[in-house]
Specification:
Number of helices: 17
Order of helices and strands: EHEHEHEEHHHEHHHEHEEHHHHHHH
Distance between the termini: 60 Å
Strand content: 5-15%
Strand order of the largest sheet: 1-2-4-3
Number of domains: 2
Largest sheet: 4 strands, mixed
Radius of gyration: 24 Å
């Protein structure tokens, strides 16, 4: 709909918190066509040198891809995008809605000639577009970080500058003459954003040196609002269930961990050169959701017993007791694990950090010392850099935050 009267020079179109497109009786293509008609009409009444703003909020990548395709097909050039907080937290909670505190404002200009006709003869070269994309993201993301725009908000704020490269053309073609779809381009945008975000998460560090599980974990936590993640761990599990019900899903058993929409998780992983199906010990996929497993659930995989999963840490019991039992189960009994020896070392830096966190949580001080000092886990500088990054990324109320801080607090005392 149009907000207020349409003015000749500038206008604003509001897509006012629609239901998720995938939940409708119509398919995505239907909405793309109808939205394109509305956006085309907005462009028609706007002067060629005018500015239009489209306000939109959605949690799903499918909805974003649909609206962006409609904008481009309607003859707009997207020149900027900014997330702006538009909802009061109290209002959202009272309405029982999913937490969408920000709406993204897409700033657009008509792709028109001075006489108002749409430019339809400008063909972009795919190689040139791909070459310019990482440069544009590199220029934009540090500015966003300086202004406190991080996580998912930063991803959406990068859409405008990234899409200006693509939408300035009538179409973009490969050397073969094949037309590049917006969906294909957005996959490249996610990859560029993910790689640039890692340089923010790990400043002054060679991110290539971290294995894919570490890169994915860091990016996953950063995406969940840049270290203020709404982990469904402990107190927030009930809130997550309420969100699921508000979106029309059936009530499910409470899940712990850090949850992202599956398609968003897949795009993040793909952008980092990882594949979710190869990381089943770290990520669990269920329907349209992907869950980054809590560290406590990885105990059996990390310490043995055929890589099986330990029972999750229970809220009403001391975590030390639960993890003590998990370690016993993983090694087949207390005597086989012992107090001072870790028989199985993690294959990656992230695995070894998670092992040290579990040892700290279970009160195995001597085993932790031997593991970090004598067994050499702490001699790898990536261990401490990744631990420091995870400390900054884990939400303050989570057990993971307390555990990794406990390991870091022993760094100096252990001689590092």
């Amino acid at each position: 709909m149009f907000k207020g009267e349409v003015v000749p020079k500038d206008s604003e179109i509001v897509v006012d918190r629609p239901h998720e497109l995938s939940n409708s009786t119509h398919d995505i293509a239907y909405y793309e066509r109808e939205l394109a008609k509305a956006f085309a009409e907005g462009r028609r009444v706007l002067r060629p040198d005018g500015v239009g703003t489209i306000v939109f909020a959605s949690k799903t990548t499918a909805s974003w891809e649909a609206i962006l395709k409609a904008v481009v097909d309607a003859g707009w050039i997207i020149t900027g995008s900014w997330p702006i907080d538009t909802e009061m937290e109290a209002r959202i909670a009272a309405a029982g809605q999913a937490r969408l505190a920000s709406s993204v404002h897409l700033v657009c200009r008509p792709r028109e000639n001075p006489d108002g006709s749409v430019r339809a003869d400008e063909i972009g070269d795919w190689r040139d577009v791909l070459q310019e994309l990482p440069r544009r993201i590199h220029e934009w993301m540090p500015r966003l970080a300086e202004e406190g725009v991080v996580g998912a908000d930063a991803i959406f704020a990068c859409l405008g500058p990234a899409l200006e490269i693509f939408s300035r053309y009538s179409r973009v073609e490969k050397a073969s003459g094949e037309t590049v779809t917006l969906k294909e381009y957005l996959e490249c945008v996610w990859a560029a954003v993910a790689k640039e975000a890692l340089t923010i998460i790990f400043p002054d560090a060679d991110t290539i040196g971290f294995e894919e599980d570490a890169r994915l974990t860091a990016m996953w936590l950063w995406t969940l609002t840049g270290g203020k993640a709404e982990a469904t761990n402990g107190e927030n599990a009930e809130d997550a269930d309420a969100d699921d019900e508000s979106e029309g899903s059936a009530k499910k058993t409470k899940a712990t961990g850090f949850i992202l929409e599956y398609d968003a998780a897949r795009k993040i992983a793909q952008g980092l050169g990882a594949h979710l199906e190869d990381l089943s010990s770290l990520v669990e996929v269920s329907g349209e959701q992907a869950r980054l497993l809590p560290v406590g659930e990885r105990a059996s995989h990390l310490f043995g017993k055929n890589g099986g999963k330990a029972a999750p840490v229970k809220k009403k019991k001391p975590p030390q007791l639960d993890l003590f039992k998990a370690l016993e189960q993983a090694e087949g009994g207390e005597s086989s694990f012992g107090e001072t020896k870790v028989e199985r070392h993690g294959e990656t830096v992230l695995d070894r950090i998670h092992q040290s966190m579990i040892l700290f949580a279970a009160g195995r001080s001597e085993a932790l010392k031997r593991f970090v000092v004598e067994d050499g886990a702490g001699r790898d500088q990536r261990f401490w850099r990744l631990a420091q990054a995870l400390s900054a990324l884990y939400p303050s109320h989570t057990e993971e935050k307390r555990w990794v801080d406990g390991v870091l607090a022993r760094k100096k005392g252990l001689g590092f």
